[in-house]
Specification:
Radius of gyration of chain B: 23 Å
Structural class of chain A: alpha/beta
Helix content of chain A: 40-55%
CATH architecture of the largest domain in chain A: 3-Layer(aba) Sandwich
Radius of gyration of chain A: 21 Å
Largest interface: A-B, 56 and 54 residues
CATH topology of chain B: MetI-like fold
Oligomer: heterodimer
CATH superfamily of the largest domain in chain A: Periplasmic binding protein-like II
Number of strands of chain B: 0
Structural class of chain B: mainly alpha
Distance between the termini of chain B: 31 Å
CATH topology of the largest domain in chain A: D-Maltodextrin-Binding Protein, domain 2
Strand content of chain B: under 5%
Shape of chain B: globular
CATH class of the largest domain in chain A: Alpha Beta
Number of domains of chain A: 2
Strand content of chain A: 15-25%
CATH architecture of chain B: Orthogonal Bundle
Helix content of chain B: over 70%
CATH class of chain B: Mainly Alpha
Largest sheet of chain A: 12 strands, mixed
Number of helices of chain B: 22
Chain lengths: 329, 509
């Protein structure tokens, strides 16, 4: 019951602190929910940045990556956000079209498997999409082998989930005009399509399917946080589509200096070292101490696939039609 | 109803309640439409979505109601130990967040579930739960309890005197009392469940097994999130309202009218009961179907309950406060509307069911964004929206009881010049305690489990329990999420139980 005794004291501190805070500049970062949650990278990053910026870093959470973009589109130029963090390359074309973003001006050496050259959007982490299954199962060696097998998978709906959209792009990039045929072959492997990643992953863990669409880094969570090495990602011959998560500076920000400082901080040690074991993705710049133990066990795809934002935007609707037609038979 | 003698009550509360409903349904739709750039009409896929939506909603509502009738009859005329608890427990699926209920259902009907393990034991091939039948199964799981409760209320609302009279005349209870009662109660019950299923999204997609199972609500989601086509979203939301109005008109056309005299508030005694085993079979079947998946939710969540992070308990506290606020508001609105009565009230009472949660949220966001930070009003908006979304259920429970009281006692009260709060306090409230308690319980529990609007508004410090649970899932912490789901289940159920029990004190249900 000691807490109760200190409550008035604490309340006094809070009052003083909020008085002092009135002068402290506030930087608002609009990001997706799981980034700001207490298990995500948010809290550690907030502490690290506030230690150097003499500012108050506030995260505004908004669903997932797609919800983030929708919110920004709803808010338009009146948005209070200074930074938008958590879009991926499938969304950046539409985000750029809003005209709300300014060049980030950061010139950092990024550790991405692909070349990166984008004036507005700067990556903070990345990963490969992959099917994650249980160790000991005969893993298929390609998307086609999976489609020809009797294995059951759960995937996410591309219309409501960023990994679901990632798979759509993966199949389209790897198979081009043959994508519709591959989806037709895959149809009998798909147990169900869920609205989001959480539902699909939960169903896989409950044993509803042999594998789930997730990331090559997902087994790292089970290995590092749960000391469970029973989950593996399947490496496919066609290569793996990437998700590159980016942030951008809002042009109309009232804190341009702080926003620039944050963008530079984003590709520095204080931010990047937090990413692997909180967001369970690869950091955009490998931390000085290397990746955490356990990451070396992950499969490394032989080939990284990624469409440019323009290509992604232009094939999206065709790919979605192929997907819907094939799975509606 | 000009011929009815009605005690005088002030009119403004019902106007305020109706106004709030209209703002949150048509107002939010208007806000979305205002921002829309019109261009594209409906796509071919949207028409397929409309067809599928109506088909699954019709099937789900029909099966729920058909199954609910014998269960409600059995519960109405049998007395056994644990009957009260069972009736309350049966309400639980309706109150659960979708994903929790779906995982519970899968633990029973899924690939590794109890049913398929049982089938394997006898050498049968496993049955896949995913498809139209899965959608309907899940919707029946959610809505059967609701149908049972509404129809049971109908049964219990038949005055004891009528059964007495029927027994003394040796008249057929079924044709004379029960069929007319069903004629009044079933169309409305069917309508409510049809509308709930009409706006289904996550259940339909997850259990439907793929894009075949695309509903209008998912098409709206796609329009808002994937295509950012506000015009198409608004158009689809209008179609959803049109379907609602069509269904409501149809339901009201076939709704029967009460023709017999009033009763004197006595406990029902029955003289016409043979074959108890058939009734008990129905009760046991329904209990097994509804409680087994809930049991699995409890089993999955139990191990980690005491390891839950402190933030979960704060989120739970926030949810409870919002639930109490939204239940109180919902009851006040329902009472105001029920006392007013009439066709406008009937329309207002079903509108929220047809509203797309996403359009309401997006519209509310557009309305408040120019004035305040959305996260500052997250809990307030959640409270208002939840109260409005629960209104149809509360009104369905309360309105018939209020009408009954007005019919039975209105003339007497008017002749005694009993009006305003005295009429409410002395005559109405004591007689509608049972539906009032039920309505408050449903409103509170629905609000506990709701994830719709708060997700659009809330930041870290406005996190409610369902949102916290989803965030745990999103961070790979499925076991902690399962425990949070158990906390949510227990709290929702406790809220429901306390209200429901309060209403049933000295009442025979």
């Amino acid at each position: 019951m000691q807490k109760a005794t200190y409550l008035p004291l604490a309340a006094g501190f809070v009052l003083c602190a909020s008085g002092a805070m009135a002068q402290t500049p506030v930087l608002q970062v609009l990001t997706y929910d799981s980034f700001t949650s207490e298990w995500g990278p948010g809290p550690a990053i907030e502490a690290a940045f506030e230690a150097q910026c003499a500012c108050d870093l506030q995260f505004i959470g908004a669903g997932d990556g797609a919800a983030l973009l929708a919110r920004l589109q709803l808010e338009g130029p009146r948005t209070e956000a200074d930074i938008v963090l958590g879009l991926d390359t499938n969304l950046t074309a539409a985000a750029r079209d809003t005209g709300l973003f300014a060049p980030h001006g950061v010139n950092a050496a990024l550790d991405l498997p692909i070349a990166w050259d984008d004036a507005e959007f700067l990556p903070f982490d990345w990963g490969y999409f992959a099917f994650v299954g249980n160790a000991g199962v005969d893993a298929p060696a390609s998307l086609q082998a999976l489609a020809d097998s009797d294995l059951k998978i759960v995937i996410q709906d591309p219309r409501s989930s960023t990994p679901g959209l990632g798979l759509l792009m993966w199949v389209k990039t790897a198979y081009g005009d043959g994508a519709a045929a591959l989806w037709a072959d895959l149809a009998d492997n798909i147990v169900t399509v869920t609205p989001g990643w959480s539902e699909a992953y939960g169903m896989f863990l409950e044993g509803e399917a042999d594998a789930v669409l997730s990331y090559t880094t997902s087994p790292a969570y089970h290995l590092i946080a749960e000391e469970d090495d029973s989950k593996v990602a399947w490496a496919f011959d066609e290569g793996h589509y990437m998700q590159v998560e980016v942030a951008g500076k809002v042009a109309g920000t009232d804190q341009p200096g702080l926003a620039d400082q944050f963008m530079a901080f984003m590709v520095s040690e204080g931010f990047q070292s937090v990413i692997p074991t909180t967001n369970w993705m690869y950091p955009a710049v490998t931390p000085e101490g290397g990746l955490p133990a356990g990451f070396e066990t992950l499969v490394t795809p032989a080939k990284a696939l990624l469409l440019s934002p323009q290509e992604a935007a232009s094939v999206r609707d065709t790919a979605l039609d192929e997907w819907r037609t094939a799975l509606s038979q | 109803m000009a011929h009815r003698a009605v005690p005088i009550i002030p009119g403004w509360p019902s106007v305020a309640a109706a106004a709030l409903v209209l703002v949150l349904t048509f107002g939010t739709l208007g806000a979305v439409t205002w921002r829309a750039e019109w261009g594209s009409g409906l796509a071919t896929a949207d028409w397929a979505a409309i067809r599928f939506t109506v088909l699954q909603a019709l099937l789900s509502a029909a099966i729920s109601v058909v199954l609910a009738i014998p269960v409600a009859r059995a519960l109405a005329r049998r007395r056994f130990a644990g009957r009260r608890l069972l009736i309350t427990l049966l309400g639980a699926p309706f109150l659960l967040p979708v994903i929790v209920a779906v995982l519970g259902l899968l633990a029973v009907f899924g690939r590794g579930g109890i049913m398929n393990n049982g089938l394997a034991l006898f050498g049968f091939a496993p049955i896949s739960i995913f498809g139209l039948h899965g959608v309907v199964l899940a919707h029946v799981f959610f809505n059967l309890p609701l149908a049972v409760r509404f129809i049971l209320q109908g049964w219990l609302a038949i005055p004891a005197e009528r059964f007495q009279l029927a027994a003394s005349l040796n008249a057929p209870v079924g044709r004379l009392l029960e069929w007319p009662m069903l004629g009044r109660v079933v169309p409305g019950t069917f309508l409510v469940i049809f509308l709930i299923c009409l706006t289904s999204f996550a259940v339909a997609l997850t259990m439907g097994g793929g894009p075949r199972a695309t509903t209008v609500e998912l098409a709206i989601y796609q329009a808002l999130r994937f295509d950012f086509d506000l015009g198409r979203a608004a158009l689809l939301a209008c179609i959803q309202f049109a379907l609602c109005v069509g269904a409501a008109l149809l339901a009201w056309r076939v709704t029967g009218v009460d023709t017999l005299g009033p009763g004197l508030d006595r406990v029902v005694q029955r003289w016409d009961l043979a074959r108890p085993w058939a009734d008990y079979l129905m009760i046991a079947g329904a209990a097994l179907f509804l409680l087994l998946p809930l049991g699995m939710v409890v089993l999955r969540g139990l191990p980690g309950v005491f390891d839950l992070p402190a933030s979960i308990w704060w989120a739970a506290l926030r949810s409870i406060v919002v639930a109490i606020g939204s239940a109180a508001l919902c009851i006040a609105m329902s009472m105001a509307l029920a006392l007013r009565g009439g066709a406008v009230v009937a329309v207002v009472g079903v509108l929220p069911l047809a509203a797309s949660g996403l359009v309401v949220g997006t519209g509310a966001f557009l309305i408040v964004f120019p004035f305040v930070r959305p996260s500052d009003v997250a809990l307030l908006i959640t409270m208002l929206v939840n109260a409005t979304l629960a209104l149809p259920f509360a009104l369905r429970a309360i309105a018939p009881a209020v009408v009954q009281v007005v019919d039975d006692y209105g003339r007497l009260a008017a002749s005694l010049d009993l009006r305003g709060t005295d009429w409410l306090r002395l005559i109405v409230l004591p007689r509608i305690r049972r539906p009032l308690g039920f309505a408050a319980g449903v409103a509170a529990a629905l609000s506990m489990g709701d994830l719709g609007v708060v997700a659009l508004f809330a930041g870290q410090s406005e996190e409610t329990l369902p949102l916290a649970m989803y965030r745990l899932m999103g961070a790979y912490r499925m076991e902690a999420a399962a425990s949070a789901a158990l906390v949510l289940l227990v709290l929702s159920f406790a809220m429901f139980w306390i209200c429901d029990q309060g209403g049933r004190k000295n009442a025979d249900l």
